[in-house]
Design a protein that fits this description.
263 residues; Structural Genomics Hypothetical 15.5 Kd Protein In mrcA-pckA Intergenic Region, Chain A; 17 strands; nine-stranded mixed sheet; alpha+beta; single chain; 3 domains; Alpha-Beta Plaits; binds uracil
Length: 263
């Protein structure tokens, strides 16, 4: 929540002091109502602020959010097959943001969205080896031999995957729950790694990316990244540390506070 005069200043309408004068002269509306008194706060994601009848938004501000993507949404801004896109889940954000990287239509979990092109480049460029962790429910049992194969790399389309961290989390009714950490981003990589060892992925959830953790963010909901989280992401590519190392250094064993938003 921001004070209305600060919001107007962020939109470039006037300085904070100038905005106070505009407010008292009745030229500013919040959600259709003229506001003349000082001290009113606005939710920059949800409230509609108008100046002289025109909606104003802080367009140039960098926005960083984490969405818990449900299955059944594409991670593009629009879809030529008219499927639901993740953009419909973040429609109240007052800027043109877009997804960083991809998750399959059926994959759930952590998806970063931003309007920061530099950061998108850092997170997605293969040279930065950004780690992504998935929990997968797969068919069948996983033997020690299969685990060794998955860890060492399996061949997909004639090319071996890089070594991965792979653990068994437990048994499920239909098979096994697995945790997989990779730093490559090949198309449907986790699903195809399991196919290569004769298993089918029944459910796939990304739980971590670049040191960020999905935590208890409810499915279909989003939250803004905290300042320490954004700072951590901005360090990607600045040294030889992996994103997971940077996360451990900044947050230690602590869980990053997860302030999920109610809609
Ligand atoms: N691996 C997959 O198979 N699918 C995803 O969406 C992400 C990683």
């Amino acid at each position: 929540m921001l004070r209305l005069q600060k919001y107007l200043a962020d939109c470039g309408v006037a300085s904070r002091r100038g905005a106070e004068a505009l407010i008292s002269s009745g030229r500013v509306r919040v959600n259709g109502e003229v506001v003349r008194e000082m001290g009113v706060k606005v939710d920059e994601d949800r409230d509609i602020v108008e100046f002289d009848g025109q909606r104003v938004r802080p367009q140039n501000k960098m926005i960083y959010i984490m969405l818990n993507k449900p299955a059944g949404f594409v991670t593009t801004v629009s879809d030529d097959k008219d499927r639901d896109t993740v953009m419909s889940l973040v429609s109240e954000i007052p800027a043109r943001i877009y997804p960083v990287g991809r998750l399959d239509y059926d994959t759930e979990g952590l998806l970063i969205l931003t309007n920061d092109g530099d950061l998108t480049y850092k997170i997605t460029h293969p040279k930065n080896n950004v780690e992504k962790t998935y929990e997968a429910e797969v068919t069948g049992n996983i033997s020690m031999d299969t685990l060794t194969k998955l860890r060492g790399g399996v061949v997909i389309d004639g090319v071996r995957t890089s070594p991965a961290k792979v653990e068994v989390l437990g048994a499920t009714r239909l098979g096994t729950r697995m945790k997989v950490t990779i730093h490559e981003g090949r198309n449907r990589q986790v699903r195809r790694m399991f196919e290569a060892v004769g298993c089918i992925v029944k459910r796939l959830v990304r739980t971590e990316e670049a040191g960020l953790k999905l935590g208890h963010l409810p499915r279909g909901k989003w939250r803004r990244l905290t300042e320490p989280e954004v700072n951590m992401l901005k360090k990607i590519g600045t040294g030889r540390k992996s994103s997971a190392d940077v996360s451990r250094e900044m947050f230690g064993g602590r869980r990053i506070v997860n302030r999920s938003r109610k809609k």
